[in-house]
């Protein structure tokens, strides 16, 4: 009887045999496996390193996609520009040239807006405007933005003498403004002084009024001769004062 296949052993000296060599002892096989697994080149890669490599590959793919999109966008823009400067069907030369002029003018305006630098005054104005909006939204913020008293302190040099408090030259915001074209009367100061005198005379007790005073509502035809003489005298005085004031203003010019 033949031997069982598991007990069959091949000679190790057979140079043409390519199958399993079962005649080798188990200890030698284990030693060979350990030697093969102990190689540094064949060690397993750690999981963290694998994750890093995968992320790097993903980022490269995203960059490539982004570049492709940019290239496509640039191509579309170029096509649009080419279409703008091409004569359309049924468009006359006059309309074509006018359209090109309009497009060129709008492009020049846009480029000027981009290159235009903002002035410092405009920047400060926008900054204050933003701060006001923030204060409206959050009133507590206004307390933090208040400057200290030291910022409002005046610097007084040694030996400076002050005889009176400073005069306010600027008018308040809501004060009524006089128009520049409006001219004031030459005798306004004299009229005002006269009104002050009448106010002072009104403080006197009753019965002490001047006898020559004429009521304003009285007409000339109802006046007596004395009242007419007083009125004429007053009128002549005002005319002379007006002439003197007029000469003075002309002399100054």
Automatic annotation (TrEMBL):
Biased region (Basic and acidic residues) positions are 90-104, 201-213
Matching InterPro entries: CCDC137
- List where Basic residues composition bias occurs: 58-68, 114-131
According to its record, what are the GO cellular component terms?
A: nucleus
Enumerate the residue ranges of region (Disordered). 58-142, 193-230
Name the PANTHER family on file. Answer: COILED-COIL DOMAIN-CONTAINING PROTEIN 137
What is the name of the protein in this document?
Answer: Coiled-coil domain-containing protein 137-like
Organism of origin is Actinia tenebrosa (Australian red waratah sea anemone)
């Amino acid at each position: 009887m033949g031997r069982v296949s598991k007990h069959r052993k091949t000679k190790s000296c057979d140079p043409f045999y390519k199958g399993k060599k079962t005649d080798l002892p188990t200890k030698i096989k284990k030693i060979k496996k350990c030697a093969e697994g102990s190689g540094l080149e064949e060690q397993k890669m750690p999981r963290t390193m694998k994750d890093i490599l995968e992320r790097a590959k993903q980022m490269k793919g995203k960059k490539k996609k982004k570049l492709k999109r940019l290239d496509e966008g640039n191509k579309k823009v170029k096509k649009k520009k080419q279409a703008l400067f091409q004569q359309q069907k049924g468009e006359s030369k006059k309309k074509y040239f006018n359209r090109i002029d309009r497009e060129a003018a709008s492009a020049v305006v846009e480029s000027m807006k981009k290159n235009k630098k903002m002035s410092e005054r405009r920047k400060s104005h926008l900054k204050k405007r933003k701060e006001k909006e923030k204060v409206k939204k959050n009133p507590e913020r206004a307390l933090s933005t208040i400057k200290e008293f030291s910022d409002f302190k005046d610097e007084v040099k040694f030996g400076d003498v002050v005889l009176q408090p400073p005069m306010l030259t600027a008018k308040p915001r809501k004060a009524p403004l006089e128009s520049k074209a409006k001219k004031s009367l030459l005798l306004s100061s004299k009229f005002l002084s006269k009104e002050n005198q009448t106010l002072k005379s009104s403080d006197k007790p009753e019965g002490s009024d001047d006898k020559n005073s004429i009521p304003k509502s009285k007409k000339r035809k109802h006046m007596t001769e004395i009242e007419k003489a007083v009125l004429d005298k007053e009128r002549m005085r005002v005319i002379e004062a007006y002439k003197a004031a007029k000469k003075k203003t002309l002399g100054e010019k």
